Amino acid sequence: MTHGFSLTDDPWLLLPSATGEPAQERSLRTALLEAHEFGDLVVEIPTQKPAVFRQVLLPVVLAALGRPADERQWMNWYSTGQWSQEQRRKLQEYLDAHRGLFDLFDPVQPFGQVAGLSTAKGETKNAGLIVATAATGNNVPLFASRTEGDAFSLTPAQAAHWLLHTQCWDTAAIKTGAVGDPQAKAGKTTGNPTGPLGQMGVTLLAGRTLFETLLLNIPVGAPPASTDLPQWKRRDPAEPRPASTPQWQTRAPEGLLDLWTWQSRRIRLFPEATDEGLRVTRVLVAAGDRMPHTPETEPHTMWRVEPTGGRNPAQDRGRTTSSRRPLRLQPGKAAWRGLDALLAPERQSREAGEKTSGFATSKVLDQAGGLVPELGGAYPLRVELFGVAYGNQSAVIDDVMFDALPLPLAALDADSDVRSALLEVAEQAEQLAAAVNHLSADLRRALGTEPIPWDKGQRPGELVLHALDPLVRRLLTGMRGVEDLERIEAGQLAWEQLAWRRSWEIADRLLLAVPVGAFAGRSTSQGEGKPERTHRVPLAEASFLRRRAEILHRADALQRNGAHPDNE
User: Fold this and answer.
1) How far apart are CA 563 and CA 408, in angstroms?
2) Which residues have C-beta within 8 Å of that of residue 507, sequence separation ≥ 6?
3) For residues 75 and 67, is the Cβ–Cβ distance under 8 A?
4) Pairing outcome for strands 358-360 and 303-305
């Protein structure tokens, strides 16, 4: 029995209207042609969003329309607020011409899969294998309510999302060996890396509508080379290519289309008719193409950059590698704590011929920084960051990371006062956390115990950062469209007054929890020939208050002038 599900014309993308009406499932055709009418894409888990954008939405637009040659053409596209009649025609024609390549269950060319993929013994796996949140294999918790043996049923729309997610974020290590894969041994392939997005922190830009979001994530430049094809165009049954067979290879992407639709796994979905309708209950996941490294053309990641002219550790070991490495996200760390990387534009450095080191922001964010005069400083840009933390040998998923920040466009100008203010605020928050950690260490020493190790347990500084988080986000929103230095200073003062109170609330809790015996204090040796150091509660408190005043110097100055920033 033949089953069909067309990503082009069957609804599978959950989209709310731009005016706030409830989300409904839409087809790829409707989502793209009417992109100006829709808001943000709704997904089951955050990491599905970059998978859908990179594997389907963005490459279809790029393949059908090309990309803007420069920022002036980008603005011409953007200024209309929707696709022009000519662009709509091209999108329609492209979707019509390639409709058969977007059938999820086509027996000859199933989208994102290999037709006839099988093992020597004909085994298949539970569909939960491609669901990152499901308990399967090494990811089965000891006391989970669901076990690997439980049946897992996916609707075609769910299966499409998890298929794309697997191509982007799949775990590493051993994969099933497929018939026709000459590199499989004993029914297995080893040495598989994670999906390509699992090796970096992904940065997507979000606008007011799906149309704006698509444009914001397409870098300007030359049209794709003739060899740069999306995965569905690399699947010609008359001339089988690697992406349409069990064979795989290690190679570099040919360009953006190849990079965005990278087939890191060979997959086959097995649909069946059930009482609830068409469902995917079994899957097969085998080894796929491997990238030697993330190419520098990757537009959706921030970079850690080796100092110009410095030695590269990899070169010292006899290997050649790029001076850039994708920046990965850290679990539990708010995105604003990485503002030094987010706000590291290269545009002005390149134009001035300056050497760069440290960090470089993503290409799409750097590009947005050059569009400030056209978009306007008050444009409600949202930066979304995605990542996955893998566990033992990257064979399990420990954590899925997502954060979104309202980012003032002016902050992407290396010389702007807004950028300087935001970087100072982020640094002040880190310094306040360190000051509270230092207070905690002094209080523990006064009790005769050792400070909390930096890599064990939760230190109280994390509570400070948690308390300051909504304040920083409020400031980021409030800085949109602000250019006047006096208003920027007023915003920083307001932030410092609130941070003054919040940091004291955490510190005061620590002080109130100290037993009376700690007030007598303890003396510790500082080494041979040095006087002993005495640790007492009053000394610890005074040290914290002094450090807080140094960090929040505006609020301190206000207090000294008679306006008390809190009720302390």
Assistant:
1) 30
2) 436, 439, 541, 544, 548
3) no
4) antiparallel
Q: Phi, psi (5° rounding) for residue 479? A: -85, -5
**Can you say whether the dihedral through the CA atoms of 175, 177, 178, 183 is positive or negative?**
positive
Question: Residues 238-248: pLDDT tens digits?
Answer: 555 566 789 99
pTM value?
0.90
Question: How far apart are alpha carbons 426 and 336 in whole angstroms?
Answer: 7
For residue 37, give every residue at least 6 positions away whose Cβ sits within 8 Å of its Cβ, in sequence order, or none.
17, 18, 209
Q: For residue 563, with 0-12 CB atoms within 10 Å meaning exposed, 13-18 middle and 19 or more buried, which class applies?
A: exposed
Q: DSSP letters along 272-318, please?
A: EEETTEEEEEEEEEEE--B-SS--TT--SB-EEEPPTTPPPHHHHTT
The rounded Cα 68 to chain-centroid distance in angstroms is 25
Q: What pairing do the DSSP bridges indicate for beta strands 397-406 and 382-390?
A: antiparallel
Alpha-carbon gap, residue 295 to 314, rounded angstroms: 16
3-state secondary structure of 250: strand
| b/e per residue 80-103 (b: at least 16 CB within 10 A) | eebbeeebeebbeebbeebeebbb
Q: How far is CA 545 from the centre of its chain?
A: 37
| Cα distance between residue 70 and residue 65, in whole Å | 14
340 with 322: CB under 8 angstroms? no
For the cut 50, the answer to whether the pLDDT of residue 315 exceeds it is no
pLDDT digits (tens, 9 = 90+) for 321-363: 568 899 999 998 999 999 999 998 875 555 444 545 589 999 9
Find, among 347, 430, 331, 40, the residue nearest to 206 by Cα. 40
Contact indicator for 140, 149 with CB cutoff of 8 Å: no
